[in-house]
Specification:
This protein is about 30% helix and about 30% strand. The strands form 9 sheets. Strands 13, 14, 15, 18, 23, 24, 31, 34 and 35 form a 9-stranded mixed β-sheet that branches. α10 packs across α12 and α12 packs across α13. The termini are far apart.
């Protein structure tokens, strides 16, 4: 009987694997190059390498993966040709939106074109009232006419979004049945299914994006399933979704919009559990990959969540880990603006052609090239010697930029890194200080292939005193997949006062959601002892326009009002005594516990001195220039023995750069804990 659990994170440059043996608790990590043309190809390559790593695909009992496939489809506009059927008079809701601007005074800002062209946004006569009552019956002949137009236009997917369908899905369901008669193979998304909540624009925008993604995501998941079966994996595959939980492949096919933050959410889940185990419940996650930097705030061991966000300029609404993403990763390209100023990102060299030093055809200077020039990264080979790099190619790429700005190659490489660090620091302040949190209470958890390389610099920039570098940081997102539970959210819009007779209706609605959640857990074959239900209420004071999140089982109206007041104080700094509280959305999250508790790891034998494998000349800055720094092999560093910076720490999936004013120690879970001891570096 198999005992292996596999977590995979498909990134822009590398596809990461974490393999856990359930019997022994042993965990191993490795990477393969990503294949952007078909991400499932890299997954097959990684699994096919199991035998040479002493593993067997037939022993896999849990198989999950995180992916940015959906996000990349939206960014690159590679989704299916999509049509929209909506209530008469609401054809342009998708384009009108909320009339908000990302920059109020920038007249050059332009919203992206809608995912559905106006010619394919069709109307039909029907109307429901706000309580779901039928005001105008569905014009079935009108739906049939729309179906014929969609067929003529050769659409691949259709979104159906009718007014107030979240209260009564009957019209949407009947329209879908009629369209199926004309287009039996088309993908159809119903707003009453994808997002049964009020707010017409967000509901229709989310449903349209879901439909837009369905054809291509279906093809990707088909290839993913076939390739994994081909390699001998028989375990049921899961995909992590944006709220940090896992969902089945069938659920991912039907709701691909829920995977838009798949990979980053996995990293946050893993970081939260690692931080809590290491006695750091308050952390800021700092995940630097090849293309982007993802940051999120975790307070009290719980990630911050958000219901609304933009993906490539398009509004979507569904429960998501609140991750802030900026275009600053190892492959981010250095360039000059029209005024000759040095900029870094958001353009990326990605996996292909990649940084110049990787020898895959890249010629433009990237953050990775800058680190290789300064020898903060190994100038000979990465991945424990498995991946040769070309330092001269990196110097040539950075030198081309240096020539344009009239600086030395070293100063230019240093400047590239400082600009990237400043961009990353701004993202960290945006999820913490800008939302009222005191940064001094938090530690910075650095992961991703390039996170530990820049973490000390970012901590110095932001005032964070502690940096945590988890075991195998380059594969934390894949590790997070292993630690995640199977989850799905069920929601009901109420818009009722939390008082009197309305309270009975609210509790009845919760009971109905619990039944739906239990039925889904049955369908997912989750054992009874692995099940849990989490209750979440989105509420506001009467008269407010936006709601806040309150967790916990509903008992009495008075108890809920008190808990809401406390939550309101946390978010806004005040509460309104005796002011009516209005419940907007009820959520019940079904949870199937799939992960296992973190275990301590065995300590390396020997001393810190024995873990030193050499020295390397490293450029530390214009003031100090080049200095010989000790290079430690992380696998040889024992637990509990302190060491001091400056230093380089190398391992298979990442490299850490320790500043002169930092001291560190390895804890029982294999984390490196760095602290500033004499002020700022």
């Amino acid at each position: 009987m198999g005992t292996i659990r596999v977590g995979i994170d498909v990134g822009g440059t590398f596809t990461d694997f974490t393999v856990l043996d359930d019997e022994t608790g042993a965990m191993r990590h490795f990477k393969v190059s990503s294949t952007p043309h078909d991400p499932s190809e890299a997954i097959e390559t990684g699994i096919a390498s199991f035998p040479e790593r002493g593993l067997s695909a037939a022993d896999v009992v849990h198989f999950g993966h995180g992916t940015t496939v959906a996000t990349n489809m939206v960014i690159e506009r590679r989704g299916g040709r999509t049509g929209l059927l909506t209530t008469e008079g609401f054809r342009d809701v998708l384009e009108i939106g909320r009339q908000t601007r990302p920059d109020l005074f920038d007249m050059s800002v332009r919203k992206p074109d809608p995912l559905v062209a106006r010619a394919l946004r069709l109307e039909v006569t029907e109307r429901l009232g706000p309580d779901g009552e039928v005001i105008l019956p569905l014009d079935e002949d009108g739906v049939a006419a729309a179906a014929r137009r969609f067929r003529q236009a050769e659409v691949e997917a259709i979104a159906i979004g009718f007014l107030h369908a979240y209260r009564n899905p009957a019209h949407e369901q009947r329209a879908a049945a009629i369209i199926r008669e004309f287009l039996p193979d088309v993908f159809i998304s119903l707003s009453s299914d994808v997002l049964p909540e009020f707010r017409e624009y967000e509901r229709i925008s989310t449903t349209v994006m879901n439909a837009y993604l369905m054809p291509r995501m279906d093809g990707y998941l088909d290839r993913f399933m076939k390739r994994s079966r081909k390699t001998g994996v028989e375990a049921k595959p899961y995909t992590i979704h944006s709220n940090g939980g896992l969902m089945s492949t069938e659920t991912a096919r039907n709701y691909p919009v829920r995977t838009c933050l798949s990979g980053p959410a996995a990293g946050v889940v893993g970081a939260a559990l690692v931080g809590k185990a290491a006695a750091f419940p308050d952390i800021i996650t700092y995940d630097v990959g090849g293309t982007s930097t993802d940051v999120a705030l975790i307070a009290g061991g719980k990630p911050a969540y958000s219901a609304d966000r933009d993906v490539a300029g398009y509004s979507i609404r569904c429960p998501m880990v609140d991750v802030s993403v900026i275009g600053a990763g190892g492959g981010s390209i250095a360039w000059l603006d029209d005024a000759g100023g040095l900029k870094v990102g958001p353009q990326s060299a990605a996996a292909v052609p990649g940084p110049a030093a990787y020898g895959k055809g890249g010629t433009e200077a990237t953050i990775t090239d800058a680190n290789i020039v300064l020898q903060r990264l190994n100038p000979v080979a990465l991945l424990d010697g498995a991946m040769p790099v070309d330092r001269e190619a990196a110097r040539k790429a950075v030198g081309a930029v240096a020539e344009k700005i009239g600086r030395s190659v070293e100063d230019t490489a240093w400047g590239i890194i400082r600009i990237a660090v400043a961009n990353m620091a701004r993202a960290i302040r945006a999820v913490s200080m800008d939302k009222g949190h005191d940064l001094k209470q938090f530690a910075l958890m650095a992961f991703g292939g390039a996170g530990p390389l820049h973490a000390a610099l970012v901590a110095a920039e932001t005032g964070l005193e502690t940096v945590i570098i988890p075991e195998s940081p380059g594969t934390m997102c894949a590790r997070g997949v292993l630690l995640s539970d199977v989850t799905r959210d069920f929601v009901s819009t109420q818009i009722k006062r939390a008082e009197g007779e309305s309270w009975e209706e609210i509790t009845s609605a919760v009971a109905a959601l619990e039944e739906q959640a239990s039925a889904w857990l049955d369908a997912e074959t989750i054992p009874d002892d692995k099940r849990a239900l989490q209750h979440i209420v989105e509420a506001r004071y009467a008269g407010q326009n936006h709601e806040i999140r309150v967790e916990g089982v509903l008992t009495t109206a008075q108890d809920f009002a008190a808990r809401f007041a406390e939550a309101h104080k946390v978010v806004y700094g005040y509460a309104l005594d005796d002011h009516p509280v209005e419940i907007v959305n009820l959520r019940v999250q079904a949870i199937g516990h799939a992960g296992r508790p973190l275990q301590t790891v065995a300590s390396a034998t020997g001393s810190i001195a024995a873990a030193k494998v050499g020295e390397r000349e490293v450029y530390v800055g214009p003031e100090r220039g080049w200095l010989p720094l000790p290079v430690y092999k992380r696998a040889l560093m024992p637990q509990g023995e302190a060491f001091s910076g400056p230093a380089i720490i190398e391992e298979l999936t990442s490299t850490a750069y320790v500043l002169p004013d930092q001291e560190g120690v390895v804890d029982a879970y294999g984390n490196i804990i760095l602290k500033f001891v004499k002020g700022r570096a």
